[in-house]
Amino acid sequence: MNEAEFKTPTYPVVSFLVARGALASVVLSVLVALACIGAGLSSGWLWLVPLGIVVAAVLLVVLLSYVEVLRIIADTLIPKY
């Protein structure tokens, strides 16, 4: 392969997560919390409400840290042409 045939690889999912990962993390965490709260209130299992809030908070921290690591990797390894 010569230089004329070489194309810089694009990573659309990485680009999407770098640009909108924080918002996606918050939205997903809020959806998990709402699902657990709704399931707990509708079924009568009220222990699901605090559990859902805790799980959503942990999920938010994990997803935000993943997005941050992905931003660092994308910043250092993906060329900016």
Q: Keywords, please?
A:
81 residues, mainly alpha
List the helices and strands and how they pair.
Layout: H1 12-43, H2 48-77
Helix pairs in contact: 1-2
Describe this structure as you would to a colleague.
- The chain has 81 residues and is mostly helical.
- It has one domain (19-77).
- The chain has two helices and no strands.
- It has helices spanning 12-43, 48-77.
- The two termini are 20 Å apart.
- The model has no long low-confidence stretch (mean pLDDT 90).
* Spans where pLDDT lies below 50 across 5 or more residues: none
Shape: elongated
Report the average pLDDT across residues.
90
Proportion in helices: over 70%
Summarize it.
By secondary structure, the chain is mostly helical. The protein has one domain. The protein contains 2 helices and no strands.
